[in-house]
Every structure is written in structure tokens, then in C-alpha cells.
Amino acid sequence: MSLAAYICITCGAQFAPSETPPDACPICCDERQYVGHAGQQWTTSERLAEAYRNRVEQLEPGLVGVGIEPSFAIGQRALLVERLLWDCVSLLDDETAARIADDGGIDTIAISHPHFYAAMVEWADRLDARVLLHEDDRQWIMRASSRIELWSGERLDLSRTLQLIRLGGHFPGGTVCLWSAGADGRGALLSSDIATVVSDRNWVSFMRSYPNLIPLPASEVSRMRAVLADLRFNRVYGAWWDRVILDDGHAKVLRSADRYLAALESTPAEQVRGVERRASGPPR
Question: Would strands 7-8 and 42-43 be described as parallel, antiparallel, or unpaired?
């Protein structure tokens, strides 16, 4: 029997090749994620390719998005910028590989947190790239590879215009990527869902678990705010196609942190008064 690298249908993480599927996905058994209502289910790259395709689309000069359609697992899209693949998806088909090669290829894959590890080793092997993960999240690596490099500390320069920043929060090693050349030189923050762009794209939020609605403590959000305040960016790219703050992103991220902290510190009556004031105020 040939070995298959099984992929968790709920989170999209690919596991080391084995004769039979793993008993469970530790990433989904963690309180930040969940096991689907039908129980633990698995697929493979070959099965994915039969039913899904990748959407590859330019988002701005120098930045390309890659996401699976129809939506699979968490539904994130990865970003390709200056030979860096930021985050990852579970499908790499021939068409996608050819498109990336035409755009100059990649030499590095960097991932924000374990929910988006996806098929990182398969991508790295096929595209001849290294994988950079923060060492604080090493326990969530489900498919080991010599291509994986663990980095430590708070910041890592990838090039003159790309920098990884450990922001923490959602996971201890939660990482964002600062692209200083983005947004016509005003800077873009590739925030994934470490600072997630919400449905009202004038705001972001910070959570320990998004599907299970577990908040972060005020002390952690305050620390994250201090890190973000020190960065220069105008645009924010979240983890999904439609989650983008196009302009004034730095101010909107900081005011989002302030709103989060105020909500944690206020009483229910004060929160109601705040909602009433915002509802009667001028449009944003």
C-alpha cells in the first residue's frame, strides 16, 4: 500500500505520509479550533485536485493572492510577494505551480500560525523553498521536513522590504509580515488573522479562538498594540480575499485595539452608552 499524506478537512493541515489516516488532528482538538460536526475526516492532495482549483489573482502591483475554490477548510488565501509565499493553502496543482514559476518562483514560505500550515511541506518540496515558522509554535508541526527552519525572537528581516514580526496573541508564535514597499510605498501589513480584518473593514480584532469566541486578555492586546504602533503601514491584508483595509490601516488597527481594551474594561451600561454615542455620531 502506498503512503498518503493525509489532509485534515477541517483545518487543512497536511500530515506525514502514512498507511492510514491519523487518529485525530491535534490542531483541531485544541481549544482554538474544533473538530467538524461529522467527526474527524481526511482527504489527500489527489482528491482535492479532483474537486477544487486554485484562484490566483493580482491584488496590487507586486502582490498576488492564491486561494482554493470552492472554499476548503478555513478558506484562507495565501499571498505571494517578492519570492515569498505568505501563509499557505492545502492544494498545489500544476496550473498554480506554473503560474508561480512564471512570476519568478518562490524561495521562502513564511506562515503566520498553525491554522494555516496547510500543505507547506508539499509546496516547499515542489517549489524548492524553505519554510520559516516561529519556534514558539513548533509543537503544531504535523509533517516534519528538513526544509522547515525555526526562527526565534521578535523580528526577522527577510529582505530590504520584508520583515516578519512576532505579534503573538492567537498563538504564542503568531506572526505578521510587514511589506514596506506595499500600497505604493506607504507600507502594507500582511496580518493573516493574528490581527484579523473583520466584516466592517474599518476595524480588526484579536482573539485566542475565533470559531470558539475566546477573547485575549487585556494585557496581551495592550502588548500587541505597542508592537503595532511601532510599525509603518497604510494597508492591511487579512487572511481572506475580502478582508482588506485599503487606506489608513495603521490608525484603524490602533483604534481597534483601543476599542477592544475599552470593551474589556467597561461595564455593560457603559458599553450601551458607547454604542448609542457611535450610532448618533457622524458616519465613518
Answer: antiparallel
pLDDT digits (tens, 9 = 90+) for 160-171: 999 999 999 999
pTM of the model: 0.93
Instruction: From 177, 168, 266, select the one nearest 224 (Cα to Cα).
Output: 168
CATH of the domain at 59: 3.60.15.10
**How many domains are contained in the chain?**
1
Amino acid at 66: V
Q: pLDDT for 260-280, tens place per residue?
A: 999 998 766 555 565 556 556
Is residue 200 domain-resident? yes
Measured CA distances, 236 to 110, 228, 252 (Å):
17, 12, 10
Spatial neighbors of 182 by CB under 8 A, at least 6 apart, are 60, 62, 63, 81, 188, 233, 235
Q: Are strands 84-86 and 207-209 parallel, antiparallel or unpaired?
A: unpaired
